[in-house]
# Entry
Amino acid sequence: MSKENSNPITPSERFHSTRKAHQDETAEDYVEAIAQLIDEQSQARVGELAQVMGVSHVTVTRIIARLCKEGLVTTEPHKPIYLTDIGREVAEQARERHIIVLNFLRLIGVEERQAQIDAEGIEHHVSAETLDALVRLNKKLSNPGLNTSSE
# Structure
């Protein structure tokens, strides 16, 4: 039975949320990739990041300049890229959302390759409320024998 919606969303609210998510996607993807490179190789450089992201060196340089202005990374010409504390936090949050969504897609039977692709997009558009619901559902789907409550 669906819940009665006493506070319907307006089209402008719905589209604003999507536009905001799109604005944040690039930054989140880049800081997540930088964090992964740092964790795996102890540093992130423009060339390696371009390879990971599948874009040109020029594109990465332009985006890194933007991320520096936003306070997410620091770097100097021909030097490694470092995450600021805020950048590391954004990367960790993006990674956590990715894992939650990916686990859910796997649990409902989405093939691994497609689950990876879909999780990458969904993670940027999912609310905290929906993430909480996915966490609860992931637990139920992972342990179906432990679900004794009737809902």
